[in-house]
Design a protein that fits this description.
about 290 residues; alpha+beta; four-stranded antiparallel beta sheet; 11 helices; flat
């Protein structure tokens, strides 16, 4: 694959056409009771400032069934269309990778990618969806991307998918491989969430704080702990350590928690060290 089309759907959950969703659901579900229940589910409103607000489109984020129905919708709007109608007409190979409303399309030839990008806007428009013009982009990515970019005096393009920035790289043997980094905004968001938690729970017993923070660190490592992503993991670990000290300082009432004292506290209440949780075997061996 040489070209990657990043797909970003504007306000996806709020743009789903309910009548079309019901028709798609009826293709696989024939039980009238289930269909009526789904109909009630997608039409229910939300209460905001004491008022009931009812919209004409969308499934409403936060409902337990919304992710499932959203997957059904894109299965017919994108998946089956791409597999049954698009790929047979292309000059080269093409693949789709999707999780919920996050998707990328991979192409062997640029002309195929450009044709599909144009057709995709029309296809989505028929079902009430719209591509984000700035976040939907076509990038060169693959074995030749790095060399082509260098000849033009540029760095090879990257793309973001499921919280990870994907980068063209070379293995130790000089062969093409893909490296990943935690997306910057995801890293900032994760640290902001930890800081908020530390602020709200700064008066809890230190051992209990350590236990919860370690759970957060392990959860972060479990998802982002991929080969080549150690630097981003280390950055998150150091950020958590720095944030924890900041909010522990806020409860000392004038007694400043120096780094020496804080390091002594960390020896007694250590934070989970940076750890790669996935091997190359489970993430795809470098070519």
């Amino acid at each position: 694959m040489r070209w990657v089309l990043e797909i970003d759907i504007r306000s996806y959950f709020d743009s789903i056409v309910r009548s079309a969703l019901v028709e798609m659901t009826e293709k696989r579900v024939t039980d009238g009771s289930v269909l009526r229940l789904i109909g009630k589910w997608i039409k229910v409103g939300v209460i905001e400032d004491g008022r009931l607000l009812v919209s004409e489109t969308g499934t409403g984020q936060g409902q337990p069934i919304s992710p499932l129905l959203a997957n059904v919708y894109l299965h017919y709007v994108l998946d089956k269309w791409f597999e049954d109608e698009v790929t047979p007409r292309l000059k080269g190979e093409a693949y789709e990778i999707r999780f919920a409303d996050d998707a990328i399309l991979c192409f062997e030839h640029k002309e195929d990618a450009e044709k599909v990008k144009e057709a995709l806007s029309k296809r989505f428009g028929k079902f009430g969806l719209a591509l984000h013009p700035e976040k939907t982009r076509l990038v060169e990515f693959g074995r030749n991307a790095e060399g082509n970019a260098k000849r033009q005096g540029n760095k090879p393009s990257t793309f973001d998918f499921l919280g990870l920035t994907h980068i063209c790289a070379r293995s130790r043997r000089g062969k093409f491989t893909v490296h990943v980094r935690t997306m910057r905004k995801r890293l900032r968001r994760s640290l902001t969430a930890v800081a908020q938690w530390c602020q709200e729970h700064r008066h809890e017993e230190v051992g209990q704080q350590q236990k919860t923070l370690n759970a957060k660190l392990r959860g972060h490592y479990q998802y982002y702990g991929r080969p080549t992503n150690f630097r981003s993991l280390r950055q998150f670990y150091r950020g958590v350590r720095r944030v924890w000290r900041k909010w522990l300082n806020r409860r000392t009432r004038g007694r400043w928690l120096t780094w020496e004292k804080y390091l002594d506290l960390l020896r007694r209440h250590p934070l989970s060290p940076t750890r790669i949780m996935h091997s190359w075997a489970t993430t795809g061996s470098p070519a």
